[in-house]
């Protein structure tokens, strides 16, 4: 009797689930739907430009592991491990990177360079605990580097160069002990260069150039041989000399305005002289010409100094290979 009761309960449970043959076939075809749904959401938020250019034509009802720019995991079928869309200018319609990308929790590689994305880096990327390579370079991303990236403990390469990022390098990133490449050049980062970087023994390539860091450069670890590199400009020099450069640039602008004004006065004087001819030039005309020559000389000197300082004051740190 108990055996029949168990069979009855099992049948009722199956019927209540409404498990149709179509659903069974869908599971066989697509397996885990988590990543597929996240990718479709990603597609819906990037609709206009994608559809116009046809970059996501393959993102349809087919198996998502066959879609453009994706690779799936063999050990965990239908889980996406690589998402790579580059040189597509997807962000040309003022689009940001959708936060739904944080739902692709099996991602190992995420590359979205050369796409013109704007806005901030989604904090949700910090949910990608298996991420090893993150490349968001050559976009127009702004805001600060999210501290949530510290959750990506397996990160080996972080490439955020050629954006508009500002603020300091987060202290929380000191958890990324295994990182091998940290590329942050050509942003608007400021503050001190983190001391913890010198303890990253796996770090092979570091590029912090063309930012606005201040303070002293660390002396140990990957920074050990910086004193032998003639291309490095210490931040103290930048802080000391940058006002002089700005003053010279402002002076050059004022001088240019004076030159234009003197040229206009000289033109009026000569025109008046033609109307009222005289045996010699008026004192005012000679004075204007002398002022014009003097101001032109000052402008030339200021411009030359500005050019020299431009070469000397490229801010901050270049690339250092880890000493062997």
Give a written overview of the molecule.
InterPro entries: Leu-rich_rpt, LRR_dom_sf, LRR_N_plant-typ. This is non-specific serine/threonine protein kinase. It is found in: Membrane. This protein has 324 residues and is of the alpha/beta class. It has a domain at 28-223: Alpha-Beta Horseshoe (Leucine-rich repeat, LRR (right-handed beta-alpha superhelix)). It has 6 helices and 13 strands. The protein has helices spanning 2-16, 21-30, 34-44, 47-53, 235-275, 283-312, and strands spanning 70-72, 80-84, 109-111, 118-120, 133-135, 140-142, 157-159, 166-167, 181-183, 188-192, 205-207, 212-214, 319-321. The strands form 3 sheets. It has an 8-stranded mixed β-sheet, with no helix packed on it. Strand 1 and strand 2 form a beta hairpin. Helix 5 runs antiparallel to helix 6. The longest helix has 41 residues, at 235-275. The termini are far apart. Mean pLDDT is 74; it is low at 14-31, 227-241 and 310-324.
